[in-house]
Amino acid sequence: MKNLKKALSLLLAITMLLTMLPTIFVATAAKFVGEVVIPAMYNYEQVYNVFDRPDLVISAKGNNVEPDSLIRGFWGDLWHVTVNGKYGLMNQSGDFVVQPIYDSISNIDNGFITVGIDGKYGLIDQAGMIKLPIEYDYIESSNEPKNVRKVLKNWKSGLIDQTGSLILPAEYDWTSDFVNGTAIVSKGNQYGLIDATGAFVIVIGKYNGISRIDNGQLFVNDGGTYKIVTDRDVHVRTFAYDMVESFGKGLLRVRDGTTWKIGVVDYGDNLILEIEHDWIYTCSVSDDRAIVRNGGIYSLINLSGTEIKQLSFDFYSANDFQGGVAFVSYNGTYNLLRASDGELVFPAKWYDQIQILAHGLAVVTDGDKTGLIDSSSGSFVLPLSYYQRLYSSSDDYDLLWIEKDNGDVLFVNLITKAVFDLSSYDYASSFRDGLVNVEKDGKMGVVDNTGAVVIPLEYDSFQGFYYDGLACVKKDGKWGFINKSNTAVVPIIYDYVGWFNDGIVLVIKDGKKGFVDETGSVVIPLVYDDLGGFYESELSLAQKDGKWGFINKSNIAVIPFIYDEADSFFGGIAPVKQNDKWRYIDTSGTVVIEVAQNYDWVSGYYDYNFYGYGDGNDHARVWKNDKTGLIDKTGAEILAPAYDELVGYSSTHSYMWFLQNDKWGILQLKPAGTDSLDPSPAPPSPPKPPPNRPDYQP
What we know:
The chain is mainly beta. Helices cover about 5% and strands about 55% of the residues. The protein has 3 helices and 67 strands.
């Protein structure tokens, strides 16, 4: 009895000790087979968009929808599908929510989808129910949700609200955009003002004209009497003229009903230009100038009425003065008129197009040639030539970026009007932080926005100042990082440098790898044959003297160099191989999974979805003789390695894409001797940096 008690006590102690040890999964003899559901018949281009949804493809094919007809991205949880040239929508289960009967289907807008049949449009909800009949010529769409959208029916305008309900019947000639919660509507010569519910703030027909003026108030025609009212129809001012027109910039062009002469007043009815002219084309208080016509004579005058210049040409229109010049047009051609003296900037030439820029410059077009001129003097900053594109740099709006049709690049400083021609370079980038990367005769450098060389063209490769003012460069076959003073911060002595991550970068020299920081100091010595990176954990995969282990950022071997093969940590575990046996260890080096069979390589536990990373962490890839298969979380083989590639297996379904002979098909994983597999779901995890696996190609 005493010996029995001792034995029981010993057994209890051993049991308690075992409960304190980490769990080690030992593979069982479970075996699965892959039943081909769709044979290998598709090219990559036909299926890459649905690599993560082989289950959806199975259901969709049951509805005669091929994989390359499935489009995601713009319809919430729905998929856009095409069948026999008609469009519909399919849910995540592969069932039609909207049958493929439409000629067009737009993106979701305010929760509804615009559909079209035979040139008419309507709205459906995400269940496919018609919300707005398919009888409209146009339904406004927007990139952002809008409370109210315009519709046209028989080319009459109406409005719908966020629910897709018609709040203003489509019977109006015009509806304006909403400003401060109201919009102008018109029917014939009757005008009104509505709010965002479609209710009339100013009843239709009260006024014969309504327009907005600069201060947010309304300018109205009340049966030939002109007034300013608020957008709630509160009277502000009445004008004693028989015609009043908004002139912009706080001005009104007015006409005396007795003399039929034209003048200019401001919104307060203060006289700006005497009511004594046959017509006034433009008026500028800041320039003290106006262009007028009297008795067939065109003149430039000041606002006191004194003639500055009698103009010797007729023209159809003149725009406001801008930068000391007015834009004038005649017979489809254009010129500029100087405010100072009334002279044409181009006395001998009218151009096909003129675009006034900032800082006194203008772009002129003559036929298929374009030039850049000083708008006050008319002198060419850039002569007429075959420029392909002219636009302001997004990095510096005081610079004009110009590309000629032969690919040569020029920049113009709009302030100084200085031109620097980069056509002598073989390549010039766009501006970034006021700098342009250039290349000539195979050497690269940098010029600034004056055209001065700030980084000499001495580098074989120059990749820009993308990391805290540092640029990756190559010179004489070696790599490093320089700052904007052309000082080598990370010495240009390495055979390879990577990209900075968390303040350190991988470098290689003489076949050995290490890490340096952004000052160029070595933080991990270059003594390793291979290094991974500090991505998911504080440990980096490392190889030394033919063996693999894991180091921390202090260069301490936390997991010793004892393994023949290894991969980086993912999900807190990493595969390692020792004595021809694969296992998975945690960050302390403790074995947590034993792999049942011998393979050439095993991966981390992540699903191969559309992006190549995992969302379930419930299986790992294995390779043998250049073929791939699967193992489960215990290390047991799910699918024997017999495929060129496997993509898309998930914890939520049992289907998977497989590749054989450059064609893709779908198989279903089934336990041997059973008809189905119903794996339990696992929570998703975010994508991680690519592991050091043999099929990964950067």
